[in-house]
Design brief:
Elements: E1 4-8, H1 36-40, H2 43-57, E2 61-66, E3 72-74, H3 81-85, H4 94-108, E4 110-117, E5 123-129, E6 135-139, E7 144-149, E8 153-155, E9 160-164, E10 166-167, E11 173-174, H5 176-199, E12 206-210, H6 216-230, E13 247-251, H7 261-276, H8 291-321, E14 330-334, H9 344-356, H10 362-368, H11 395-400, H12 405-414
Antiparallel strand pairs: 1-6, 2-3, 2-14, 4-5, 4-9, 6-7, 7-8, 10-11, 12-13
Amino acid sequence: MGILKRIFHPFSSKRDSTELNTTGSLVFGERSGYSQTQCMRLSAVYRCVEVISNSVAQLPFHIYAIDNDGYRRLGTKHSAYRLINTEPSTRMSRYAFWDSMVSSMLLRGNAFAYIVRDKNAVVTSIEFLSPSLVTIIDDENGHIQAYAHPKYGWIEPCNMIHIANCTYDGEHGLSTLDFAMQTAKLSMDSEKHAEGFFRGGANLSGIVSINRALTPKQKKDFLESWYSTFDPVTGRPNGVAIMEADMDFKPTTVDPAAAQLLETRRYQTEEICRFFGVSPVKAYDLTKASYSSIEATQLAFLTDTIQPLLSKIELEVGRKLFTSSERDKYIVHFDTSSLIRTDKEALSNYYTKMYQLGVLTANDIRKQLDMQPIEGGDVAFVQSNLVPITSPLSPAQAQQQPKGASNSNNQQQNDPSSQGGEQ
């Protein structure tokens, strides 16, 4: 395995002093400030993570077998087909598996899944591993040499599905929160300020100036009277204070309106959405939304946010799941057509075009809509308004004509005697 130089503990808060054939250690993914759980309490962070992970988790994930002509068919005979498409392990379904994987990748920078094989190298299960329990072990050049887990021990890279988030070296991922921490901290500080403001009955704190000396008892009685009037716990957060002629109240805190509290909170939502690549509309910020913008937002989300992530997952799973002899015969692929299931108009347009081009038959469409097949529904049709220049027949009819038949037909059409008339 070579000489190991560094151990990376993603999300560890302190350096590991364990000696494991190493000459040094380095904490990978170490962050400061608010914790991941605290960041998830921000509605914008929670929604961005949920909308991305749920969008990936809902997609059917299939193994496809590739024939000699490059056409794909469902690889149902592969031993891992059921694992990929339905149940990666006995602990979770496909949906829960990919929801956990994508959430871990976004929040912790790395997502791990251990490919369990039997003695014949047949895949028996794919186990999701909590990133906090996985140790990344690098060689002297900083490349991943192996992984370590308390339950499964040493894991070779070929048996570990490792989905990295944003990465500088192509191997180690960094959490989105590592980059968005300053924005997240400002958002949480704004939330705390708003909480304190409303908990205090939306009243300003300040200094009461009195132009005469007070005894300690008078000060205590005055403060008790003031707090009982304005304390929200008493049920009178907006009480009325009675001040004598020689008293003056001077507020010492910034007015929330002057601090633009609401504007700051709204702006921080947009900033968090930028880090995750999610439109504020997807995070339910509809202040600038319209019907046309929502449609464009959905298309941009699919092409700019989801599709690159799907490609990353497909390539990583394909190169780790299949043996070297299988990689030219099988691929894994997400079925993105399910993303338009709820949009009936888009779904109808899609199937109409595929049917008219002869790509899908009526029974192909019925199968995808979970409907029973119909008699004669396996025949593919194409529109006949487009024909070759040299033939009045449809493309399908032209292909069925024997050689020379089209020429004889044209000669008959051009020969007046064949039509029983004279010029």
